[in-house]
Every structure is written in C-alpha cells, then in structure tokens.
Design a protein that fits this description.
CATH architecture of the largest domain: 2-Layer Sandwich
Distance between the termini: 18 Å
Order of helices and strands: HHHHHEEHHEEEEHHEHEHHHHHH
Number of strands: 8
Low-confidence stretches: 386-398
Structural class: alpha/beta
Helix content: 40-55%
Strand content: 5-15%
Largest sheet: 6 strands, mixed
Shape: globular
CATH class of the largest domain: Alpha Beta
Number of domains: 4
Radius of gyration: 27 Å
C-alpha cells in the first residue's frame, strides 16, 4: 500500500489503511477490529528475517514469469541514492565520539584561539581538507549511513539502492541496499549475485521456469560508471556479454595487457553497433522508469527507517509492488490505481462530449448551419469535460 498510494512513512500507511473502508476490506479487517499501530508494522518487519522478504519478492517474480513478463536474458543494472533518516549535524568522530562543533573547538584551541567564536570556527572549517570523510565521521544512531552527494547536488547521509532490470519486459529482478560511498564497480557484484539467486528461486516453480529464457544473465547493459578492466575481465569469466558505455579516458597504454585490451575493444565495438545503441537507449528508459516509480512517486527517495538490512526489507516489498504494477498494466491497461482512476475520468468525459456533440449536430442540421455550430460545440464540450491532459495523475510509463 505504501507503493501504490505513494506514502513514504509507516505512520502514513497505517493511517491510510485504517481510514479507508476499501483497504480494510481488501486486507481483511472488519470495522469492529482495531487496526495495527505503525509500531506493530515496524516490529513485525524486524522480527521477520531478510530471507522471508526475499522469498516474498521471489513469489512475485514467479507471478511475473507465469504471465510472460520475465525472461532474464538481457539485464541492465543501475543505482540511485536514498536519503537516510539521519542528519549531518548529528555526526560524531569515529575515534573520539566528539561532535562536529566540539571537534572544531579543539582545532581552534590547538591553533591558539582560547575562546573561538562562530566566525573563527567557520574560518577553520572552510580551509580544512577532507572535512566530510566517511573514514573519520559516522552517525551515532545509523552507523551504516554514509556521507555522499545526492542526485540533485546536495550532501546528505545516504544509502545506495541498486537494481537489476529485465530489459525485455521492464521487471525488476533484484534490488539491493548498499553503502552509498561504495563505487559502482564494487556494488555491481552483489546485485548480479542477488539477481541470479532470485532466478534460481523462480525456477523452483515448474510453471514459472518454463516461461523463463533458457539462457539467463547472458547480456549485461551498464552505464560508464561500471566500466573498468576488472569488471570486463570478471564478466568475461562468467560468460556474460557486456554493453558498457566507455568513459573518455584519453589514449590508453596496453603494454602487457593484451587480454584486457581485447575485452575493452570488443565491448567498444558492441556498444557502437546497431544493437548496442538500441540497448543503451532501452537502458535509459527501462532502468530509470522503476526509480521514478518506487523512489520518486512511490515515496522511497527518503527513507524513514534506520539500518541497511531494515531498509532492504522495506524496499524489497516496495519493489514487489512495483512489479505487480506490470501485471496490473497487462490485465487492466494501467499500472497504478491513480492511472486507472484518471482513465475512468477520461472515458466519462469523452462519453459526455460525444453525446453532447451528437445532439448539437442534429440540431445544426435542422437549422442549416452545421459547420459553424459544430466547431463551437467541440470547444464547449471539451471545456466541460472533467479531463485535463496536463493534470491527470498518470504514473511514469503507464
């Protein structure tokens, strides 16, 4: 419900489910039955282990496979940042436990200023190198959060969410939560391993396994942040065909690196080919769309939980809802309730407009002024409909 209603906090989810009669009926709660408090939801999630949440995610993937919405051959991987539930002003030193202001006051006294003012502290802090290093600072209540730059340029304590997407259908095959300070070339392996494990869980169901592609994880499409010699060598050992955008590194030296050179050149040829260009365009569409769904519109861009594993559990269920949206779109033509409601408003408005135009056209024929009256009637009918193209709450891609 947090995904489909776009509610980020568990307090908001609990209030919405307790307030809505339709959601109460869907979840099996009668009016006389008390709704669980938000803290009950949090405690239940903490008591259920990570493997249980992964099993639920795998069950949703089996539903996708049975509906023909999962193949698993061509996969793209991308990452985004989640703003942590922790403030930068509360960070402390890893070695001494001193706060940021206390550390600056110690530096000021060491430089000869006995009673430093706020201006003195700001001057000392302005010229200090590596003042936001994760090696020196941590948050006392969320030690797994890391200081990093967000997508919009701000600096926050954050986590990294990385997912693997089936580029044939747009289904999210796996999602992981890792340290935001780790580079893409380091976090890639956990996500690929998680995707392979999820596909093995899907194969446990014979009806779902027969719909999967015989060769899974055979093509991997990545952006230039994942390009490195080590990544190309490792993926070649795994017999995975790569389409990785190459950053501009200038003229490179290949003395003593003949095998790596051949792998880099082969990847470059594939990327520049017709299929490679098409896959990279597809990567920009199908990899960014789930982020827009479950992070921006779904409310998970800023988390209200603490601890990497705890956030991962919540994100697994959240992304499972995003995958169920693909099934809804195949069955109903719309992937979210808001898109379905907007389509209903569009249909009702067009029905009213057509009936109104039909009446006016028959009247215009009797008066002998059909063209002028019909043109004005079209403008009048469209102005009276409840459909506004620029204001309909369609979700991305639906």
């Amino acid at each position: 419900m947090g995904y489909f209603a776009g509610i980020d906090s568990e307090r908001g989810i609990a209030w919405r489910c307790a307030d809505s009669l339709a959601l109460r009926e869907f979840l099996g709660y009668e009016l006389s039955r008390a709704w669980p408090d938000h803290s009950s939801v949090s405690r239940t999630r903490r008591r259920l282990d990570l493997e249980t949440h992964q099993a639920v995610f795998a069950w949703v993937l089996r539903v996708l496979a049975q509906e023909g919405l999962l193949t698993g051959k061509t996969v793209g991987v991308d990452a985004s940042t989640l703003e942590a539930n922790a403030a930068l002003r509360s960070i402390v030193r890893r070695d001494t436990g001193a706060s940021y202001d206390e550390f600056l006051e110690e530096l000021a006294r060491a430089s000869g200023i006995s009673t430093p003012t706020r201006a003195d502290l700001a001057k000392i802090d302005r010229k200090r190198p590596r003042k936001g290093s994760n090696d020196d600072w941590t948050h006392p209540h969320d030690p797994e959060a890391r200081i990093t730059k967000m997508k919009d340029g701000r600096t926050h304590l954050a986590y990294k969410a990385e997912h693997a997407v089936d580029l044939d259908t747009g289904a999210v095959m796996a999602v992981t939560v890792q340290a935001a300070s780790d580079g893409d070339t380091k976090t890639l392996w956990n996500t690929i391993t998680e995707a392979a494990d999820q596909l093995e869980r899907v194969r446990e169901d014979p009806s779902a396994a027969e719909r999967l592609n015989a060769d899974v994880l055979k093509e991997l499409i990545l952006d230039k942040g994942y390009h490195s010699n080590e990544v190309l060598e490792e993926l070649d050992d795994w017999e995975i065909r790569t389409y990785i955008s190459e950053p501009d590194r200038g003229r490179r030296r290949w003395k003593g690196k003949v095998e790596v050179r051949d792998l880099v050149y082969a990847n470059r040829r594939r990327v520049r080919g017709k299929r490679g260009k098409w896959l990279l365009r597809l990567r920009g569409e199908l990899l960014e769309r789930p982020f827009a769904h479950y992070l921006d519109r779904g409310g998970m861009r800023r988390v209200h939980l603490r601890g990497g594993e705890n956030i991962w559990k919540r994100l697994l269920i959240h992304v499972a809802g995003c995958n169920l949206g693909l099934v809804m779109r195949q069955l109903l033509g719309h992937g979210t309730p808001r898109a379905l409601r907007a389509a209903r408003a569009l249909r009702q408005g067009l029905q009213w407009a057509l009936s109104h135009l039909h009446r006016l056209y028959r009247r215009a024929l009797r008066l002998g002024r059909a063209p002028a009256i019909v043109a004005g009637s079209i403008r009048l009918a469209l102005s009276k409909t409840s459909f506004r193209p620029g204001r309909v709450a369609f979700a991305t891609g639906c």
